[in-house]
Structures are given as C-alpha cells and as structure tokens.
C-alpha cells in the first residue's frame, strides 16, 4: 500500500519526527510542511524547527478510521495552531473527546502511529497532547 | 584499587505514561486478596502505557528533558546507548531511531543493550567509559521499558512502563553530578528470563529474592564500599533497583541504610517496576530534589544476574538544572486511571 511505504515515510522523517519546516529569508514567513515558493515571491528559505507548542483550534473524534489506525480507534484529531504560526492537523494523544475543548494548550509528543502487521516496520511520528496548564 | 572517574551527568530526564491502574483493581480481577497483595508488594498503583507508546517513545520524551537540562545541541551527542528488555524490534536499533528523532545527525555511535532490569545502567557504564576515555565528549544513556507480565502472574501487579535518560560529559562547568566510581558483579543465575518470541517472561518465584536480587544488590554495594572506603551512612541518598516496594527496603536495611536516605530514591510505590527504567527513575528523582554536594549511591539489578553500582556526587549546578523541564513529580500528578479491562486491552497492544 503506497501510504505505508517505509521509504516514503523515511523521506519525511524531518517533518514527522522533528517538526522541521522552513522560513522565508525575505519576509520570515514560517511554513510547515516546507514550501519552495513564499507568498512574497521569494524562493530562498532556511530550515526551521517548530517548537511543538500550540493550541487546539478545532477537534473531532474518529470512530471509523482508515485500517492502519484501527487499533487506536476511537481517537481524537485536531487542527493545532502552533505558536510559530503554522496550523497543522494531528492526532491528539491520551485524550478522549469529552476532555478536550477549543483553546486547550497542547504540546508535541513522540508516539507510535502504526505497525504493519506483526512483521512490518513500525511507523512513528509526532502527535499532540494537552499541556500541563490545560489539564483539569 | 578502583579507578576514580572524571566525568559526570550534565543532563537528566524521565518519562512515565499518563495512565495508571490501581493494585486493588488487578487483585479484584484476579480474585485475590487486595490487602495481602498490597502488603506483600507495597505498590499502590502502576503506570500503563497507551497503545501508541513503547520503549522508544518513552526514551525520546525522557531524552528531550535531558537535552534541555544539559543545554547542548543534540548534534553534540556522539553516542546513544539505550537499554531495555522491550525493544520494539528484535532486529533494528532503538538507539538509531531515538537519535533521528532528537536530531542528533549521523555522526554518532549507537547500540541497544539488554540485561533484564539493568540494561539502562549497563548503557550508563558504557557511555561513562567512553567519555572517561575521551572517545566522545557527550553521550546519552537511556533505560526504558514497557514491562511484561502475564495475566494472573505476580508480575502483573508490578510490571509497568517508564524510563530515564542521562547525558554524560566531561566539562566541569556543565556537570551537575560527578560520577565518581562504578563497579559491577555478575553471575549466571536462572531467576528470570524470557525466551525468544515469548510474549511474557518466566521466573522462579521466591528464588528471585535471596539468591538473586538480594545477593547481587547487597554484595555489589558492599564491594563498592570496600573498594572506596565509604560507609553506607556517608550517602545522602541511596537508590536501589525496585521491582516492588519491599525488596529495596529490605536490602537497604541489610546494608544499614536509613529510611531518610531512601526518601527520594524509591519511586516504585506509585509507578510500579519499570524494569530498565527502575533504578534510573529513582536516580532522576533524587537529582531533581538533591542539594549541591550530596552523595548518592545507586545500585541496579538485572536478572540473569548482575548489579551495577555507582557513586555520584552533586555539584553547585544541580540547582539550576532542577528549574528546567518536566520533573517526575509533574508526571506523577498528571494521571488518569483505567479499569482492568481497559488495561488488558492497552497492554495487549504493546506486547
């Protein structure tokens, strides 16, 4: 299955493992994932590692998931506005939908995504979890 | 004569999962006497890894805090040794994955260690040796586990998840705790093992006590005291491997240590046995609470069997490091209980 290719995921380790985006050298706009052409027209960028802290803009609970995430179902997914600016869609770990609210502060956490059967590669990446200050 | 080392800890961190199960709930599910079990093990509750957590994810979180406290770029690390008995892969390096996530780059040596519950301190010894020998400037040693225990077995009450990470360096201005000495004792003892492809470990019940844990922990600590000339009461903090709450208390008593010396070093009561993370979690909790100039005695135990002993002394830098990053007490207070059915579902996914 194309989406489970270990090689494809390997190429994305910088963004999946370390939240590496890029920053325009002209206007300082930060992008995640990386872009090659800035809104200002500039094509010069520098790598930028996002802090991994932000807040929940919206969220939902996934009860009917793609097969690769079936073992984790149900799970929460949210749109996170990072402190550095970019908005990203990510799973929200260690939480059920009843304990989340819009505006909750979250931080990145390294977790297992999927494992391909009993013999395939284990896919890891960043999810988000409620920051201590947002935990009731 | 044992060699005095010129290295130390520059950063330290820990991680335990958010979920807990009470000992009471496991005892009720197994139709066993709650008070009898709690009295025998002195464990109130234990951590439960979520379905998306394993020894690698735990190591990464602990290492991030260690790096923050060390105040060095990940690229300064030139060795990562991760000890566990629940490495997610039989063949594929956990340490290499951890290095990639931390952004260490590719200029580092890495290996995964295994020696039951002392795989983490074995990693610490290896990193310490390489820094002392000036093969590397900074190294990361980790002990982490998502421990296994079959349903109904005594281990089910204690087998937990968690880990700790230590960055070792040689620059005196960065060291918050000098590692002064290390010494080990090892013997072929069939007290606890897990065969290849087996889901759960096997153990020899009471034999894991006197002839295994107590023999190695006590004799290794005594050997260290004899070699260095220290007395047990010279230490402000004593940390012993803690497979349950009772064993380290009994071993400490046999060594002549007081309850006060164990105040921060025993963390098993509300976490459980985190195997390779066990004694290192106790050490991290001590470092998070110690004053400058305090002496720490650490003795791990790994079935099979052996113990690694360390003498560590905090420096003035410890107070600054304590202000940075998440502490064990933060993780302990952020918890959510699961019932027995939820717990079995969660650990089924891990093992």
Shape of chain B: globular
Strand content of chain B: 15-25%
CATH top level class name of chain A = Mainly Beta
How many strand elements of chain A?
8
Counted up, domains of chain B total 2
The description of the largest β-sheet of chain A is: 5 strands, antiparallel
Biggest interface and residues each: A-B, 19 and 22 residues
Quaternary: heterodimer
CATH topology category name of the largest domain in chain B: Peroxisomal Thiolase, Chain A, domain 1
Mean pLDDT of chain B: 96
Catalogue the unreliable spans of chain A: none
Kindly estimate the percentage of residues of chain A that lie in beta strands according to DSSP: 35-45%
The helix content of chain B, as a percent range, equals: 25-40%
State the CATH architecture of chain A: Beta Barrel
Q: What is Rg of chain A?
A: 16 Å
The biggest beta sheet of chain B is recorded as: 9 strands, mixed
Total helices of chain B: the number is 11
**Gap between N and C termini of chain A:** 41 Å
The total tally of domains of chain A equals 1
- Helical/strand content category of chain A: mainly beta
Structural account:
The complex is a heterodimer of chains A (136) and B (351). Chain A is mainly β. Helices cover 9% and strands 41% of the residues of chain A. Chain A has a single domain, classed as OB fold (Dihydrolipoamide Acetyltransferase, E2P). Chain A starts with 5 loop residues before the first helix and ends in a 6-residue tail after the last strand. The relative contact order of chain A is 0.18. Chain B has 11 helices and 14 strands. Chain B has helices at 23-29, 34-41, 55-70, 94-102, 119-132, 209-228, 246-255, 278-287, 318-322, 328-333, 340-350, and strands at 7-15, 19-22, 45-48, 79-83, 109-113, 139-146, 161-169, 177-186, 192-193, 202-203, 237-240, 295-299, 306-314, 336-337. In chain B, the strands form 3 sheets. Chain B has a 9-stranded mixed sheet with strand order 5-4-6-7-1-8-13-12-11, with helices on both faces. The mean pLDDT of chain B is 96. The chains are: A mainly beta (136), B alpha/beta (351). The A-B interface holds A 13, 17-18, 49, 71-72, 93-94, 109-113, 122, 124, 127, 129, 132, 135 and B 18-19, 50-54, 56-57, 60-61, 88-89, 97, 100-101, 103, 326, 330, 334, 336, 349.
């Amino acid at each position: 299955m194309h989406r489970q290719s270990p090689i494809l995921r390997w190429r994305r380790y910088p963004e999946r493992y370390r939240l590496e985006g890029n920053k325009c050298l002209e206007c300082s706009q930060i992008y995640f994932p990386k872009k090659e052409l800035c809104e200002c027209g500039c094509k010069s960028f520098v790598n930028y590692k996002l802090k991994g802290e932000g807040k929940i803009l919206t969220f939902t609970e996934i009860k009917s998931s793609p097969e690769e995430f079936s073992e984790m179902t149900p799970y929460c997914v949210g749109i996170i506005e990072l402190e550095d600016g970019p908005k990203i869609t990510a799973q929200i770990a260690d939480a059920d939908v009843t304990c989340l609210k819009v505006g909750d502060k979250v931080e990145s956490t390294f977790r297992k995504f999927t494992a391909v059967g009993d013999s395939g590669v284990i896919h890891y990446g960043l999810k988000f979890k409620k920051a201590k200050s947002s935990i009731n | 004569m044992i060699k005095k080392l010129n290295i130390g800890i520059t950063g330290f961190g820990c991680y335990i999962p958010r979920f807990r199960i009470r000992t009471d709930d496991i005892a009720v599910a197994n139709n066993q006497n709650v008070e009898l079990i709690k009295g025998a093990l002195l464990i109130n509750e234990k951590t439960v890894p979520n379905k998306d957590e394993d020894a690698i994810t735990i190591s990464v979180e602990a290492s991030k805090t260690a790096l923050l406290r060390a105040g060095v770029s990940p690229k300064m690390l030139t060795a990562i040794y991760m000890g566990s008995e629940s490495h997610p892969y039989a063949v594929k390096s956990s340490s290499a994955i951890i290095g990639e996530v931390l952004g260490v780059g590719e200029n580092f040596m890495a290996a995964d260690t295994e020696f039951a519950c002392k795989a983490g301190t074995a990693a610490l010894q290896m990193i310490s040796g390489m820094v002392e020998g000036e093969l590397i400037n900074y190294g990361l040693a980790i002990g982490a586990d998502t421990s296994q225990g079959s349903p109904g077995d005594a281990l089910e009450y204690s087998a937990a998840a968690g880990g700790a990470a230590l960055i070792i360096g040689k620059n005196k201005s960065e060291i918050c705790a000098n590692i002064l000495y290390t010494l080990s004792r090892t013997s072929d003892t069939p007290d606890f093992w897990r065969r290849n492809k087996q889901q759960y470990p096997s153990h020899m019940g009471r034999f894991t006590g006197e002839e295994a844990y107590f023999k190695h922990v006590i004799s290794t600590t005594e050997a260290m005291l004899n070699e260095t000339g220290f007395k047990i009461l010279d230490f402000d903090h004593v940390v012993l491997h803690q497979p349950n709450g009772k064993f380290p208390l009994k071993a400490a008593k046999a060594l002549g240590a007081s309850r006060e010396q164990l105040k921060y070093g025993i963390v098993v009561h509300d976490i459980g046995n985190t195997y390779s993370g066990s004694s290192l979690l106790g050490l991290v909790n001590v470092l998070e609470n110690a004053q400058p100039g305090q002496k720490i005695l650490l003795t791990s135990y790994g079935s099979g069997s052996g113990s690694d002993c360390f003498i560590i002394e905090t420096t003035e830098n410890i107070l600054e490091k304590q202000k940075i990053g998440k502490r064990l007490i933060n993780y302990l207070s952020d918890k959510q209980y699961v019932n027995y059915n939820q717990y079995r579902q969660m650990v089924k996914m891990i093992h």
